[in-house]
Amino acid sequence: MRFKKSIPNMFTLGNLFCGFLSIGFAADGQFNNAAILILIGMMLDSMDGRVARMLRAESPLGKELDSLADIVTFGVAPSFLVYYTYFFQFGLLGFAVAGLFPLFGAYRLARFNVSTSSSNDYFIGVPITAAGGILAILTLFGETIPNIITTVIFTAMCFLMVSRIRIPSFKEIPLPKYGTIVTVFLGAALFAIYQGTYAQFPYLIYIATPLYIAYVTYRFIKGKNKKYLD
Known about the structure:
This protein is mostly helical. It has helices spanning 2-27, 31-55, 60-85, 92-98, 100-114, 128-140, 147-162, 175-192, 194-197, 205-229, and strands at residues 122-124, 166-168.
């Protein structure tokens, strides 16, 4: 039973490890790999909560662990990535500005964790997962996106995370559809940078991607069987 309850936490810890690896790749100048690892973290983050509900293994520990992983993978890692790819040219000021992103993200996560009112229809403010993923995608295609746009989006994401704007939630979208969208999107992103990064590609992608596809397939088959039995 204890092992069953720890399975969702393994996905969360995998998410956290992706964030750590992303920071390392960014510091080493492998920016595409760093961005890919953030996207892999998004895959794992989309799985841990669903696995917990599927196994009936939700716990306060898992919730807190998820927040800690999110602030690293979708807060600290994207801010380092943006700094090394663009803000570095502004010196200490650029470093300070890049550091604002995890501060806003941490506040957003803390506010969400203590919130007594929640809805499956919308989020209050942009989730840090989405904001960090957007920054990762910007760096993937940084050569074709003007720096001013990156700066504007970076600033907007900071304030949108702590805003009171209601952002539509996709929690009620059936998993097969949502999983297919995420898988296709990641496949397109990886294909776009395949030739330039294959020699130094993070090996974790070869584990995470088949695992995620297998998970989506399993949920799709299970949903079909349940519908048939009903």
